[in-house]
Amino acid sequence: MSYDINKIKERCVATCAKVGVEFKIPVSINGRLTRTLGRVQYTRNSNGYVTSVSMEISKQLIDTQTDEVIESVIDHECAHYLVNETTHAAHGHDEVFRMMCARIGCTNDGRTTKEFDQTKVLTKYTVICENCGPIANYHRMSSTLRHLDLCRCKKCGGHKLKLIQNY
User: Fold this and answer.
1) I need a labelling partner for 163 at 20 to 30 A (CA). Which of 45, 64, 84, 131 fits?
2) What is the spatial order of strands in the sheet that 133-138 belongs to?
């Protein structure tokens, strides 16, 4: 089952319904999220109250992970939304957040997703050593990649490194 915006929204509505809260923020799939799997963005008004304004899910997550992992991340983000909506405060991953995760049946209550398979993450660049094979992956062009001729292999110390662009 592949996830799209409608399936993500359906999951959010169902998760929030478990605690009697209406899910009412926009959801998007963001292709630029590479270090986080999802996020709930919020605003703080002049009284200090927090209001959720949007939810974003990583396109890489949707493209590379199993339904179980995707659902775990969606539930995690819904827990952030629910905490913001019910307490009007930002709680991060504190005890209030973990209690909300328990209430909605989400086991993903930390900063990292235990089931996430990092090996499936799409990277734009791969550095390959002629002796050792692939040695590093990068999401963005960097000074290191521009000057591979000055670098050595981490494993064998060789100078014959080349850059492959994956997509």
Assistant:
1) 64
2) 133-138, 125-129, 161-165
